[in-house]
Amino acid sequence: MKKLKLITSCAFVVLVVAALSAPAPTPADARSNRYMDDDYTRPRFGAAPVLAIVGLKQQRITVYDARGKMLESPVSSGATGYETPPGIYSIVQKKEEHHSNLYDDASMPYMQRILWTGIALHEGALPGYAASHGCIRLPGSFAQRLFGLTNMGMRVIVAREDIAPAPIAQPFLFGAREVAEESDGETSILGIPVSVGRDNGSDLLQRLRLNAMAKRGEAEAAARREKELKQIAQKKAAEAAPALKVVAAAERDVARAEADFAATAKLIEGADTDAKAEKAAKAKELATAKLASAREKLVQAKAQAEAKAAAASTAKQEAEAAEEAKSTAQDAADEAELNTAPVSVLISRKTHRLYIRKANQPIYEGPVSIRDDDKPIGSFVYTAVDTSRSGALNWSVVSLYKDALNVEPYVKQKEPASKKKQPPAPPHATDVAAATAALDRLTVPQEALDKISAVVLPGSSLIITDEAPSVETGKDTDFIVFMSGEPAGSMAIRKRAPSQGWARRGGETDFWGNPRPRRYGGGGGGWSRGGGGGFPSFFGGF
Fold first, then answer.
1. Is 10 in the active site?
2. Which of 98, 295, 500, 507 could form a disulfide with 534 if both were Cys (CB 3.0 to 4.6 A apart)?
3. Do 197 and 177 contact (CB within 8 A), yes or no?
4. Annotation says 99 is catalytic
5. How far apart are CA 342 and CA 463, in angstroms?
6. Cβ of 262: how many Cβ atoms within 10 Å?
7. Are 458 and 384 in contact (CB under 8 A)?
8. In the Cβ-directed half-sphere of 430, how many Cα atoms lie within 13 Å?
9. Tens-digit pLDDT string for the chain (542 aa)
């Protein structure tokens, strides 16, 4: 009996020690439920990712960099009635700690917003099927790693089924960069010297960024100079005001002296005795001296006032010139900063228009011709992923559907009967032939081509789609496109308020019925800077 007790006690001790030595489950693991670290691929180290694709049917996210698939993970997207709408998005905000203001202050760690009206990638529970309120939940450790890898503006595609991007030749819209005359192996792009045959896209981007930093420094120096000269102008103006008062006082003294002089003349005329005449003569002599002194003081006061007024006028002119110089330097800095951003182009068959954005700012909008425009063209995203050593851009393309031109009607996916993990199915291949054929159907105005081809950097992109840009495309966003014929449960719940604040232009309206805004940047009739409409009351949280 004692031997049995001893064995039991030893077994208990072993179990306790094992329990104490085993790693405790982290809160992230608890929230992620059945999907742990071994359910996703480890990231390759290197350049930042350029694209993320969420396959709703597979409940999977795959992240790509310039070399291909970088990492992938299971996800949980919107449940029935709260479906995550398939479409084209980009990261517009990142917050390591975030709480929902729609769903009981729910924690949303490592939140990466892809839609201002409430869809994001974030850490959350993954039961093995679509179960969120519209967001895309990620396993804990994966969400943290992805948060540290991504940059603002990275493209995120939500597709009905997982689609893999494929290499494609550079779209004709992104033609060769226009350069200045070459000299000794050197040339210039936007005024930036580059080495012909030696500079790749990264080199050019670095030089553009250095140029932007220099221009920003010049703008800051111009702002300081303007402030300094405005202070001097204010000081000179303050000094000129009392001088005018001195002149006015001197003029009054002269007027009194002249009156006294005139009075002495009358005294002399009225003197009837020698004594009175002598007294009047002395009074006249004194009045003459006072008048001369008053007039001299007036001349001096006027000279000083004129000098101070001239100094104030010069200071004012210098301040005004400094203000203009500051504005010019600020514009140059803004342009230089804009040149460091990839260009983003959208061509819509629905609106027959081409749109260009840079650094989330609209810079062009104009018509585009599409051959056989009564037939679908598909929805494709072309991305400049990197550059070769020769400076040529490498491009990839991904389709929103496995059959780009014959999209099957949406069929609700059934929740899997078995909760067991199934082997991951490979993604569908993008139909490169259909993507190439879509490009061949386009006729783009030269004005648009010039704006697109000025400087093409890695990260530049082209969207060709049957859809129109969403109303969500606005301030601080890249293009946002929703796929029609798909459930939009979460968007129906988070319906956006009508766009506000557009500047009218001849009573016209844009493609979603809002008043057309002013031109931006003098090209093609785009939006005014910062346009994009009003956000709903829950802007900044969901």
1. no
2. 500
3. no
4. no
5. 14
6. 11
7. yes
8. 22
9. 444 444 444 444 333 333 333 334 444 443 434 444 434 555 555 568 999 999 999 999 999 998 899 999 999 999 988 999 999 999 999 998 866 655 555 678 999 999 988 899 999 999 989 999 899 999 989 999 999 999 999 999 999 999 999 999 999 998 754 433 444 444 445 555 544 444 455 677 788 889 899 999 999 999 999 999 999 999 999 988 888 888 899 889 889 988 888 888 877 777 778 787 788 788 888 888 888 998 898 899 888 889 889 999 999 999 999 999 999 999 999 888 888 888 999 999 999 999 999 888 898 999 999 999 999 999 999 999 887 766 678 899 999 999 999 888 888 766 655 556 666 788 999 999 999 999 999 999 999 998 888 778 888 999 999 999 999 898 789 999 999 988 877 666 555 444 433 333 333 433 333 343 333 333 333 333 333 333 332 333 45
CA distances from 147 to 102, 117, 143, 477 (A): 23, 20, 6, 19
Provide the 10 A C-beta neighbour count for residue 182: 10
Residue 88: both structure tokens together: 């084209």
Structure tokens at 490: 């979460």
Is the CB of residue 453 less than 8 Å from the CB of residue 511? no
Q: Is 215 exposed, middle or buried (0-12, 13-18, 19+ CB in 10 A)?
A: buried
Instruction: Residue 223: count other Cβ atoms within 10 Å of its Cβ.
Output: 17
The DSSP line for 107-146 is B-TTEEEEETTTEEEEE--B-SS--BSSSEEE-HHHHHHH
Q: Which of 98, 122, 133, 428 is catalytic?
A: 122
Identity of the residue numbered 517: P
CB 173 within 8 A of CB 364: no
Q: Which of 98, 133, 135, 428 is catalytic?
A: 135
Residue 164 parent element (H or E): strand 163-164
**Between vectors from CA 127 to CA 126 and to CA 128, what angle results, nearest 5°?**
90
Q: Which two structure tokens, joined as six digits, stand for 393?
A: 């851009």
